[in-house]
Amino acid sequence: xxxxxxxxxxxxxxxxxxxxxxxxxxxxxxxxxxxxxxxxxxxxxxxxxxxxxxxxxxxxxxxxxxxxxxxxxxxxxxxxxxxxxxxxxxxxxxxxxxxxxxxxxxxxxxxxxxxxxxxxxxxxxxxxxxxxxxxxxxxxxxxxxxxxxxxxxxxxxxxxxxxxxxxxxxxxxxxxxxxxxxxxxxxxxxxxxxxxxxxxxxxxxxxxxxxxxxxxxxxxxxxxxxxxxxxxxxxxxxxxxxxxxxxxxxxxxxxxxxxxxxxxxxxxxxxxxxxxxxxxxxxxxxxxxxxxxxxxxxxxxxxxxxxxxxxxxxxxxxxxxxxxxxxxxxxxxxxxxxxxxxxxxxxxxxxxxxxxxxxxxxxxxxxxxxxxxxxxxxxxxxxxxxxxxxxxxxxxxxxxxxxxxxxxxxxxxxxxxxxxxxxxxxxxxxxxxxxxxxx
Length: 439
Hints:
Elements: H1 3-17, H2 22-38, E1 61-62, H3 73-76, E2 87-92, E3 95-96, E4 109-112, H4 113-118, H5 123-129, H6 139-146, E5 152-156, E6 166-172, E7 179-182, E8 185-190, E9 195-204, E10 210-220, E11 225-232, E12 238-248, E13 253-260, E14 265-274, E15 280-289, E16 294-303, E17 309-318, E18 323-332, E19 340-349, E20 355-364, E21 370-378, H7 382-390, H8 395-411, H9 417-431
Helix pairs in contact: 2-6, 7-8, 8-9
């Protein structure tokens, strides 16, 4: 049975396992119909022109999460932020792990999506925000909505500055050979003048094939500040489709940093909607992959109101037979005068077999704007390599130093020191060297 048919036939069994109100049932049913009509995206779709899911979808996936599988903290400690006190929402095969998590309702809500969907006290928030930012016409987003049950629910009230970062970690593991399909759903609501830092990670703990179809909705209200970090360094048998939708109100500041180092196939869909004036949106990413890895960044920033800014800066280093894709779009509505939008994608190919497809786009309907985009694809500077080797730096370390310098523009804007240190070490590991300094 094809995966599409298996998912559709599993829907009734899924709803029988969860406590669903009629409104949520109708929402899920409509989403399932959207997925049934469209199916999985193919390379015939312009947005998926350079990324194919055909080989992945041939796996026999287990589509419904089972009971929690026990994991020892010592075995997963390295995946958490080093020695930093954080709120933690940990899920194992799509099921919440209370043992590994640290939630709170003390002034803020850092808890489970399943509780928010089914408990009356959260109804007002769910009715106002759930599935309101997501693209209802996108088949994979609709599929996630149809099976939405578990994930992170984060609600930061007005004028609240969260005292420590929030970690959202999804572990996947299995004893059998069957492939695993998970669909986490996250909702983040940040009130007026509030501030929060969030780190999201998906990590496979076994060699089983894993496909994660994740959807995250973020609402940043007036003058809210949101720092969101995505750390992707999974096993080579793991595949991730990450859909993130962000709605910003007046004078809010939201930044998303995406670090893509692992996984077999990774697709990051990042959508910003600026629904107020004097908004600042930042999208930055570092991709370092090799072998036959594939990473696809698809970004959209919709400037809907005047006097707003957006900054996109994505760096990619590709080794082996890896494939990279950057498809970034800036849309400027006719009302969005005085827009300042910047988009840049720079890539380094380390071998003749590595490939990159870059497609920066501008769609502008206003006449008083400052918008720019650019793209570079090349190799390491041979003159710089020669200069460094002439001064006694071995070739391997010289290459690593140049690549560190290449990524530093993105890494320097990380606002959590321990996370910056962790990412620096991951970059050094990917480059195969040890650095005795911090950039």
